[in-house]
Every structure is written in structure tokens, then in C-alpha cells.
Structures
1.
Amino acid sequence: MFRNKTASIVFFITLITVTALLIGRESLLGKVNPGENEHYTKIKTFTETLSIVKQNYVEEVDEKELVNGAIKGMLNQLDPHSSFMPPEAFKEMQIDTKGEFSGLGIQISIKDKMLTIIAPIEDTPAYKAGIKAGDMIIKIQGELTKDISIQDAVNKLRGPKGSSVTITILREGWEKPKDFILVRDVIQIKSVKHKVLDDKIGYVKLTQFQQRTAQDLEQALNKLENDNIKSLILDLRNNPGGLLNGAVEVASQFLPEGKLVVYIKGRSGDRQEFQTINSKHVAYPMIVLVNEGSASASEIVAGALQDWGRAVVIGMQTFGKGSVQTVIPLSDGSALRLTTARYYTPKDRSIQTTGITPDIAVKPEVRENGQTHPVIREKDLKQHLKNDVTKEKETETKKEEKQEPEILETPVETSEANDIQLQRAIDLLKTWKVFKDLPKAG
């Protein structure tokens, strides 16, 4: 956790000194708050354990790794979204938020213990080289990727603009792997995509909520309005969320000024409200598409638009992440991602574990031999926070925890023609126009 060994020694001397001062204070004052005394006794136990391990373990140990491991273990006792980020991981998070990095332009995951490409990003080195979704990266620079972590893979694949990296790809149907030599470039992660569909229907897809998402969304809406759109589909499917302020700014594009978007409550119970500002785009009929991959900031936007009757929500039950994480930088460049509050929709709904229920439920079509991935929601994660609004009976909660999570399959990629949820949204907007244009009975 510390920059060097000297800083580490100072830290532990400080801990021991604090403990000694508490003991001295007890002697002087004759009494110490029992809870406070117990707290520092446990810190003393930690320093004793670290000292014993460092002096007596069968092999030499890295003190920094031990401390980092202890912090990770501490946060692992909380909820699934609280975590310790070493300096590299913290930088990675900042890059994701900014939406720009130097690399190849691929989204990766671990599937069946293999490093697998989810999708290449358009107009990037990987995309131009013909890398495809489902490709397995079996080597990076000649080193096997078996058992590699996502973070280690990202560190190997990213690098300075203009530098090259060789990845060995195995693709279904190939007899043997193939090497690709790719030159890294600056990758702009576009969080907003837009186009015009049939019958002057505007379509906007948000892939995540970054610093520039609201600005890029406004530009996209301006372009669509120049094309004289009459209605809009906002696609939040598989959008994992991002910045809370970004969600408020996005909702502000569709709701009148001063409308409540979301409020949060922390441990103290104090309520902090976030309202719309500078709203411009409020005129046309609107549909929001969601699915089990819509989480956090996506659920804030969908919930607000649903609560205010601004849009019809179509798709599947969302992920159900109704908690707020605060990123707290530490002195050595690392950071804590700590769950500090829950958030609630304008109508006082907590979506923690329950998610946003669509107005019209539409399941995606899973075609034979099509690529799928399992559906996992917040309620399936271990140690998830409970929903404090929809109180479950204790017996029902225990029964649910004993059951295996329901694992469904959903398509990885679907063409527009086969996208049942999108087609249903288009049909509804066309019907909307028909009913609107019907003459009133005399």
C-alpha cells in the first residue's frame, strides 16, 4: 500500500504509538471508552500478526502485498461493490470514466477459463485487423494467457501509442491459432451512438455513463432533431452505469427543469436530492429499452423517466444495483471504492435487488447455436445489500438464500432485424402515432 519500505515502517510505528498512547491515557485517566479501546486492540493484533508473518514465514514476504491483501480482505467482508483498488486499478477506473486510453480497442472477459473477446470497438486497430467477438486470446507476446486475470491482460494489451503487441487468436472453425501484430492507438470510447430508424424514429444507445456522455447525448439529439425525428428510443441495455452526475445530466435531457431524478440516503439517514437542470428535449414520445445488464446509473435514468410518466420502459427486469459507491483516493495512489448510500427513484422506490420492472416485458430471442451469456443480477451476488423499502419476511429471505440463483441465457449479440425488443419498441411508436392521429369522436 505504501510508496516504499520507509513509509511502511513509519505507518506501523504510528499504529503502535497510537496503541501505546491509548494505554498511557488509560493509566492517566483511569478509564477509556470500551468500544474505542477494543478498536485499537484489534489494530495492535494486526500489527503483531504482520510482524510475526514477516519474521517467521517459511519464505520471504512482500510487506506491501501483505498489507494490500489485508485491506482487500477487509473490504471483501462488506458488499460486492466495495473494494480496494491498487494504483494500477485506480488509474484504470479513471481511464474508463474519462473514456480515452491507448491500446487495441477490444472488450475482453474470461469465458470457460479462456481470455475471450466480447467485441472489438469500431475503427480501432483490433477492429481494422479483423478481430471478432468470441475470439480467444491464447497468447500475448508469446506468453500463454491461461489463468490470467482481466487486470493483468489489460496491462499487457495497453501501452504507448505507436507501440506494437502480438496476440495469438484461436477462432471457432480454425484449425490452428493465428498471430496478429497490432499497433496501439488512442482509443476513444464512444458512450453515445445514434441513428434514424423507420418512420422518423430516433435511436440513441448509451453504452455507459462517462464524463462526456451528457454532452455527447445532447449533440446526438440535436442531429436527430435536424433529421426531423418524431419519436425516440433510448437504449440502455447492457449499460453497467457509471457516474451518478452523468445519470442526472442525461435525465435532464428529457425531463422539465427542477424535476427530482434520484435521491440518496446514507447511514445517517439524511436525504440528498438530485434534480434536473437545463432541460431542452421534452417534446416527443419516448421508449426506454432495458435488460438484465442495465445497472446503476442506467436504472436511475429508467426509473426517473418511468416515475414521471415520461417514457414507456420495455425489455427485461434490470440488474438491481441501488447503491452508491464513493471513490476515496489514498496517499500512495491507490483508492477505496466504498458503498456509502442507497439511491431511490422519485416515487421512493429502492431498486436494490429488485431492479426496474419494465412496463412491457419482452424477452430476447435466443436462436439455435447463437452465442449466449448467463443472466446474473444483484440479488445473486453474495453479501449484497438488502432492499430497505420492500421489506422481505425473514423466512422468505432465508429460503431465497438457500436456493441456487436462477441462471437464464440471453444472446451476446443480435442483429437489428432479429432484435425482438427493439422491434417491439418500433412497433409501439408507430402505433402511438396511429392512435394520436385518429379523429376524435363527434
2.
Amino acid sequence: MDLPRYRVIQWATGNTGQRALREVIRHPSLDLVGVMVYSSAKEGVDAGELCGERPTGVRATTDRKAVLKLEADCCIYMPRATGRGQTRAGLREDDLVEDVVALLGSGTNIVTTCSDLFARGVRLSDANRARVLEACQKGNASVWASGSDPGFITETLPMALLSVQRRVDLIEIEEFGDLSHRPSTHMVMEQMRFGKPLAEFDPDRRKNHLFGEYQPPLSVLADVAGFSIDEWTAEGGVAAAVQDMTIVAGQIKAGTAAAQRIIIHGRVGGVDRIRFTQYGFVAREVEPDWGLQPTGWRIRIHGDAPFDLSMPFPVPLDDLASFVPAFNANGPVNAIPYVCGARPGILTTEDLPHILPRGPRPAAHE
């Protein structure tokens, strides 16, 4: 059976964008028509060279106006936009919305990893959200945001587990991240503050950021589960190393910070109905004992058809970085046909059919 073909733009080629670009080039039903980049060093470079693939004849450009004129079916929009204010790519929310409105208004659908557009765009200002929705109607186009986390772990997988429930009491999601093999000393020892005395450790440093990123998609999950959450809160915590140890990024002394966690609670009448916990650690044996697990996820559904699902990543920590882009990029690439066929608007996973990879895929050894 011949599958429909889709003209696709790759917008931004960072770590995740490069993987998405590679999969578009390999995809049997996607035709790459443009690549938007922010670096002058990438200007004019063939798309295949940017992601380790064969030459495509499509060259990257920093010319935003030229890309917007391509009239593609879908744009994989992946700049480093992480919320309101200045971002690492130099985008502000208003800049992001200018891009999105221009694409949608011209009839180009969007799949994206930008968290600004999660949960039907509730993080956007009212005025900007209204502009995006107006553009969707004007161009009869839609935008869908997802990634691995938030995204797959806060929507796709929990919704599959909810499909066999009639009564749901509590949804628990835990993320475990072992950073002991990360080579970035600044990130591990300074930004994450591992190895610092507990008295100098502020467990709430990342709380507000994480709450802003996860509460909106978790609210979508709560709605799907039938919960009317009346209180969302977040708390931070820190645990100490029980012995001296050496990690890739440096030395960790016994009694200093070796694990941290952020817990987000969604409550109804003071009772947890949604609980999301993110653990970052450089040692699994810590005080207090948090029962830390290998890098990966755990989901527990408490209801009349209970589940307890643990999903450690089945790759060595030293190799994990090469797999992470796939967790973020593959979902948006697979979703392109579904988003192109969907009703106009800012969509969530709930609005789409079950997303499956279409057409032949690379062999297992590739």
C-alpha cells in the first residue's frame, strides 16, 4: 500500500534536532524540503552532512523568511525554547510564537519538543495563546508538542495503562537519573551541587523550574484520569553519600550531597491523585535511603486494575548519551502523519490516534 507523502522542514539542528533530521531523511514517506539553523557555521551545509547521512541536496539556511515560504506539510520545530524569557537559543516566548504563528497560518502543521506548547499551550500568555489558536484556524493546521519526559512518560504510556482502568486512585511516576558517569564537572558539581555540604545545599533550587515544566502536562494526565485537582504543590529534598567515592566529574565525600529529588503533588481534598518524582543522583546508597533505582522510569497505577511498571534503560551509562536523542526525537517524527490529519488546534496525545511508526524502518543493526 502506498503511503501519503509529506513535505517536511527541520527547524534547528541541536542534539535532538540532528536525530530528527536523520530520521526524516531515512523515512520512506517524508520528503525533506528545508532546514532552518541558527549557526552561521551551518549555513549552506547539506542536511545529510549535519546528521551523518548521505547528501540530500537540501542545504541548511539561517534565512527564516526563505524557510517560511516553503509551504511544507509539517515542520519539526526544535529550537531550544524552554519557557518564558530568554532561552539558550536566544528565543523569547514572543519570538517562538512569531515562528509558530507564521508556520501554522500558512498551513504548515508543527510537531515540536518545545515545552511552551505542552498541555494546549497553557504556559503561553493569554494573548500569545490566542494568536496561536487563531493561526491554527486560519491555516487549518495543528501543533503537537511532546518528548520523552515530559511527553511519553507523562502522557503516552500512562494513557495506555489507563485504558484498562475503571477506577483510578493514584498515578505515580518516578524518573531516576544516575549522573555518576557524566563528564561535565560544571554541570554535576556546580549546577547540580553534588559534593556540597548539606548545610549549603538548597533542595528547592530546581523546584520552580521543574514545577513549571511538568505541572502543565501532568494536569492533562489528571484530566484524562478524571481527577479535578484542587491543589498542585512541589517540594525538594537532598540525601547524603554514605561513603567517600570518586565519580567521573570529581570527588564526593561522605556526608555531602549525593542525591536530590523534586516531588510534584496533584491533590484532591488533600489526597494525592498525581505524584511525580524526579531523582538525580551520583550514588544509589544514600542517607536517607530513597530506594534509588537505575536510570529510567517507574509508573504505578493504583486502581481496580493496578500496575507497577519499572523501565530501566537497557544500555550502559557510558553509552546512554547516544540513545537519549532517539527518546526525544522519534515520537515527533512518527507523529507527523497523525498531526497532519488532525483537527486544527493545539493538540495533546489525547487528541491523536495511537502513534505508530509508519513504513519500513532501518534494520536492527543500523
3.
Amino acid sequence: MDKLAVFSGNAHPQLAKDICKYLKVKLSDALVSRFSEGEIKVKINDNIRGKDVFIVQPTCPPSNENLMELLIMMDALRRASSQRITAVIPYFGYARQDRKDQPRVPITAKLVANLLTTAGASRILTMDLHAGQIQGFFDIPVDHLFSVGVFTDYFNNLSLKDLVVVSPDVGGIKTARAYAKRFGASLAIIDKRRESPEKVEAMHILGTVEGKNAIIVDDLVATGSSLFEGVEALRKAGAKDVYAAIAHGVLSDQAIERLNNCKYLKELVITDSIPLAKDKEHSRIKVLTIANLLGEAIKRIHNEKSVSCLFD
């Protein structure tokens, strides 16, 4: 492991430290600060010539700042003669803009993929992409992990009975089916109609949820509008306790306020792919770590071993 180097930007240094703890290596030293006018200043303080470098940097809010930090760090590492650079992006920002669904709009996910490759990334390690086809936007290897195992372990320890796994929309059926298979649970779908980009009206439930404990599974929760509308719909359909297992807790805008107003959601379970700010901490928000999952993937990539067992 002497050829392995793990760096972190300012997006989520705690996750990088936890990964290093799992790998039993020291977090490599880099200065990532700002010039007086606000431009990003980077200096790599360790010798990384010929090393296999991993940069842990989710592109979470502030997305533009964290993305630019990642790009500039990769450029610095490339010019410092590193052997290989892997961008470890637990939360891949701009993933929701992955197609032209309206006239004259960008495909920003493809643009970000191009930027990462041009900056010097040799491969990408990410988790729970908003759309799986984003892997195809890259011309370099992409290892796409899933947090389903982390959530499965947590909910199995709760020993919940009469489970039903709920997809918040038709597009999430494949993910929900993976959870349902692991839990040995039934499957339901929320049929929703979006009135505007920020407002969703949940219409009705496809499947049986009456008298059951429901777990809504999704890749991210931003404003929470869709999630909490779904919780209300499940309660009206007769569900008992309602939980949510969401990979990326963006929790922007009025998400915490909506959580306070939604008394029927028993627990919102997220991962630490995005750092949870102090002002967003809540008694009904549970954060699970993905440090071991990412650490194992980094170890296998470094040792040129298969990571396919981690894709399940």
C-alpha cells in the first residue's frame, strides 16, 4: 500500500479520513484554499510521483466550488507525475441534467464527464448515480457502487415485519425491486404527477401497502417535495410506519421544514456521501457511513482486483 495516496478537497474531509482509517493509511497532505479574490489555490505537499492517487470529493453543494476544487486538484496531481488518478465522487452532481427533455437545454452531466477526463482523471468511482446511463458519458472506466447493502444491514437490524418497498416513481422500479428482493418484501409504486419542477402531486399507489411497514427508496432527496407527498399518499392508503432510505441527502431549500411538518415519516435514513450540516441535523434523520464500502473499492482497484462483488 506504499504506492497508494488518498487526498481530499474541502467537500467532505471527514469521509476521506474514515476511508483512510479503513485502509489503514494516512490521508495525504494538500493545501486547498483560496486566493484573496476567491480563486481556488491548490498545492500538493506530499511526493506522489508514480503513485496511485485517489481524490475523495463529492460534488455536493456548493456544487460549483467543489467541482472546481476537484478539477484543479487533479490537474496539480497530474503535473506532479502521479501514476494514476481516480476521482472518488460519492455524490455526482449535475446528474439530473442527463438528457434533452426540453428544447435548448444542456446535457450538463456529459459536460462534467468531459471536464473530469480532461483534468486528468484515469477512472471514476461513484455511487448511486441518478441515471445509470451516465456511466456511458465517460470514455474512462467507471465503477458504479450501490448503497443497497448498507441500507439492508440497517433495516434488517430493526427487524421490521410486513415490509413493502416503495418506488417513488416508475423510473425507480429497478432499484426498489433490488431492495424488495433482499428484504423478501412486496413491491409498490407511487403514481405521481409533477405540476412544476418544485411541486409534485402524488396521485395513488400501485400495489398493496395497507397494514404494512413501508420503506421508500430513492437515490436522492433535495427539497423533499416528492418524498413527503409520497409519505402522505402511503398513510392515506393505510400503511403503518413509513421509512425512507435515500442514498444522497442533499436536503436543500425547505427540506427540513417539510420534514418537521411531515409527522408520518418515522425515519429518514441517508448515507454520508454528502456531509450533513449542523443546521440540518434532526432527530428523525439517521446517517449511515459508506466509508467501508468506498474503502474496500479503493483497495480492490489499487490491488487490481475485481470490484464486481461490490456492485450488488
